[in-house]
């Protein structure tokens, strides 16, 4: 089982697309919803997991287990102590507006075989270029601010045969907090 507090480790995942959902959660209307319901789900990882569950997230996947451990939870059964996704109907409506429901907003969105390198400060996702879902990336990037504060941003290829993405853990914070 991966240890999220370790200095640097790797994990293999089949659900790397879960991290695509960070772009969705970063959009202003979702940030407003999160801010209104932060007391119910007081951590960005909880929002990500609950949103992933709407797309049939595999709780046995190492990425999911990693996030659970980072939250201090032993297994997915402990998620029961938190409410379901707040404003789920409104969030589903936004997903249908922003993403093509038949082609993009489907459970296969999460299916992305990848290796994730994690440190205490960030996660780097490495996937084969042919596995990266560029339509999803482009849809999301069109709605992100153009700054260094992306929750999820495309990094230059770190290796000739690998696409790399980075999530900075400092961005998994309440929507009202400013990120340094």
What does this structure look like?
The protein is of the alpha+beta class. It is 29% helix and 17% strand. A 5-stranded antiparallel sheet has the order 1-2-3-5-4, with no helix packed on it. A hairpin with a 3-residue loop joins strand 2 and strand 3. The protein is globular, with a radius of gyration of 15 Å.
Write a brief structural summary.
By secondary structure, this protein is of the alpha+beta class. The protein is built from six helices and five strands; from the N terminus they run E-H-H-H-H-H-E-E-H-E-E.
Architecture blueprint of SSEs:
Blueprint: E1 9-13, H1 21-26, H2 28-36, H3 44-53, H4 62-70, H5 88-98, E2 114-118, E3 122-127, H6 134-141, E4 152-159, E5 162-168
Antiparallel strand pairs: 1-2, 2-3, 3-5, 4-5
